Amino acid sequence: MQTWKLKGMLFFFHSSMTILISYLPVYFQALGLEGSQIGLLLAVGPAAAIIAQPFWGFMSDKWKTVKRILLICFSGALAVGFIMFQVTEYLLLIPVIFLFYSFTSPAGGLGDSLAQKISVQHGVSFGSIRMWGSIGFGTSSLAGGVLLTHIGILNIYYLFAFFILMALFLCFLAPDSEPSKKPVQLLSAVKLIKDKKLLIFLLMIFAIGLSHRINDSFISLYIVELGGNETYIGVSWFLGLSTEVLTFALSVYWLKRYHLLTYISVAAVIYFIRWVLLAFVPDANFLLAVQVLHGISFGLFYLSAFQFVSRLVPEELESTGHLLFISIFFGFAGVIGSILGGNIMSMFNLRVLYGIMAGLALIGLVGSLLYRKFYFNTEQGQNELKHISSTE
């Protein structure tokens, strides 16, 4: 099967996300903004995602196409992004960023949803497709850091636009998923948030997502505080994404060995260890060494949680379920994380912030264990227990 167009689309879209996640805080700092202002601006994107992700996910299920929604999102991101990177006034940036992330934030979840559906339809590993997004993220983080060191952080849009244009072109060529034959009604989507198993799961993963999103927003500033520069930022993401690629690539061997909830608990443990280590790193070089844990913690968690959501929602609402999960993990957690992190950074320091993140990961671990007990007491969980490998 020719999946290279889909893989290429994920590669270049996640490359564009590198520019935003890794360097946008540094870009705002270069504009002369304060820590609390940066935190608020970084919260605007996830706030937009809370609305945009479920909306575009539902429209994807309603129109029974993922590809066409992606084309709309990529085109909107390219156009609004041009405006955003021309604006320098703090108050004007807020509405423009909101509109910008209304297009960019759903694209990641929709791309992963398309990869999940294609993998199921053609009997291939989801991780073998999704890993190309991580390869793009890691590769561009390294190259982007070197380029921005030379051309200047204020020229960030040119890199972003190139990657989005490539993603748009490959998306046009990529296959679409086979649509579900069942009709989709708005009432059915609304009922999803009333499903006890799904609702409690989304609450459970929130603490883990909160710690993850705080790190996304502030690790670049932490690197600068520890004496690193744009190149260090690029290397840090490259190291983390390298292990993420390996985790995704090898998922065909490890993912089915234990239950998905087991991997979520293991990921929470690794997140806890990671944040504790980062709270005490003496300099930027030690931080780079700890970054290898990024791919393991995020890879285990995201692959497991994303596919577990597919078990909790009807087939015809799979994209809606995926985008609802992502709106919690990246949206709600991103809003609260950016504001909380910015204020903690202003009042204390980034070491204190990472210590608090370790506590959040610990809460997530306890939550995952409690959810596991709850889930296996349900009828669906009991049925799955019968099929769990005897090695668990």
Q: Can you give a write-up of this model?
A:
The chain is an all-alpha fold and 392 residues long. It has a single domain, classed as Growth Hormone, Chain: A (Up-down Bundle). The chain has 16 helices and no strands. The protein has helices at residues 4-30, 35-63, 67-84, 90-122, 126-151, 156-173, 186-192, 196-225, 230-249, 251-254, 260-279, 284-290, 292-312, 318-347, 350-375, 379-385. The longest helix is centred in the first third of the chain and has 33 residues, at 90-122. The radius of gyration is 20 Å and the shape is globular. The protein starts with a helix and ends in a 7-residue tail after the last helix. The model has no long low-confidence stretch (mean pLDDT 90).
- Distance from N terminus to C terminus (CA atoms, Å) equals 33 Å
Tally the helices.
16
CATH superfamily: MFS general substrate transporter like domains
Principal-axes shape call: globular
Please identify the structural class as seen in this structure. mainly alpha
Overall pLDDT metric: 90
Element order: H for helix, E for strand: HHHHHHHHHHHHHHHH
Using DSSP, what is the number of strands? 0
CATH architecture label name: Up-down Bundle
Instruction: Indicate how many domains the architecture comprises.
Output: 1
Helix content: over 70%
C-alpha-based Rg, rounded: 20 Å
Q: What is the level 1 CATH name?
A: Mainly Alpha
The CATH topology is Growth Hormone, Chain: A
The description of the largest β-sheet is:
none
Sheet-strand content, in percent, reads: under 5%
Uncertain ranges: none
Keywords: Cell inner membrane, Cell membrane, Membrane, Transmembrane, Transmembrane helix, Transport
GO cellular component, one term: plasma membrane
Subcellular location: Cell inner membrane
Membrane topology: Multi-pass membrane protein
